[in-house]
């Protein structure tokens, strides 16, 4: 496997009334470390099933929002779970890898992703829910499982296995810890609030919401913590 680094420009399409394509190009060309770096990737010759990318397809448009408030629309973006970095495909199979040095968030398919560093771990998380006190995050990982010659296992090729876990981030202490996404854990978060458990249960029942659905949990928490 060989990786060749070069500088290139991807087809960025900007928001607002200015030509952000030339704007982002000048920023990348002048200070490439501000947003990331470009490279060509040569995949290994052997067959590996699965993928270390979050999305199965590359036809995703992403919004890059910088710390200064600028916003850019990036075509063909995906999350490399192995590297914990967003990457965008350019021409001739070139890849631009974004870092979060000057990026506040990335929005892909209406989902918000942020980067947090905690306990010597730098990781990209999807924001499931967020308020002024805490965030519920979804973290991703991928593992390469080697092939097996045992016919009982039926694994003739190496394969990537993608996994997800949920975390709770305390905004005051900035700590991140493992979080089980279920009714019991959500109920623990909803202590010392103005709504009773009866009101919460009625809202869940009337709207046919499930604790197994991330979007439903977001609706439940929005109801619980709404002001």
Distance between the ends? 54 Å
Query: What's the β-strand tally?
Result: 15
Q: What summary fits the major beta sheet? A: 10 strands, mixed
Uncertain segments are 1-33
| SSE series | EEHEEEEEEEEEEEEEHHH
Mean pLDDT, all residues: 80
Could you tell me the strand content as a percent range?
Answer: 35-45%
What is the number of helices?
Answer: 4
Could you tell me the radius of gyration in angstroms?
A: 21 Å
Helix-strand category: alpha+beta
The helical percent reads: 10-25%
Shape: globular
Report on this model:
With 227 residues, the chain is of the alpha+beta class. It has four helices and 15 strands. Strands 2, 4, 5, 6, 10, 11, 12, 13, 14 and 15 form a ten-stranded mixed sheet that branches. Strand 8 and strand 9 (94-98) form a beta hairpin. The termini are far apart.
Main attributes?
227 residues; alpha+beta; ten-stranded mixed β-sheet; 18% helix
């Amino acid at each position: 496997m060989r990786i060749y680094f070069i500088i290139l420009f991807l087809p960025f399409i900007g928001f607002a009334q200015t030509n952000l394509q030339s704007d982002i190009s000048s920023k990348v060309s002048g200070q490439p470390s501000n947003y990331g770096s470009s490279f060509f990737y040569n995949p290994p010759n052997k067959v590996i099933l699965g993928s270390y990318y979050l999305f199965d397809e590359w036809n995703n448009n992403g919004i890059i929002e910088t710390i200064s408030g600028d916003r850019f629309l990036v075509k063909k973006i995906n999350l490399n779970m192995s590297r914990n970095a967003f990457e965008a495909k350019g021409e001739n199979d070139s890849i631009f890898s974004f870092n979060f040095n000057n990026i506040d968030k990335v929005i892909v398919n209406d989902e918000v992703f942020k980067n947090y560093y905690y306990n010597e771990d730098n990781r990209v998380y999807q924001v499931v829910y967020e308020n002024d006190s805490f965030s519920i995050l979804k973290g991703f990982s991928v593992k390469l499982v080697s092939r097996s010659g045992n016919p009982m296992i039926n694994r003739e090729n190496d394969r990537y296995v993608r996994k997800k876990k949920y975390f709770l981030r305390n905004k005051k202490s900035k700590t991140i810890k493992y979080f089980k996404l279920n009714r019991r854990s959500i109920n623990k978060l909803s202590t010392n609030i103005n709504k009773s458990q009866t009101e919460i249960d009625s809202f869940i029942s009337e709207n046919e919401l499930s604790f197994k659905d991330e979007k439903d949990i977001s609706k439940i928490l929005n109801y619980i913590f709404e002001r």
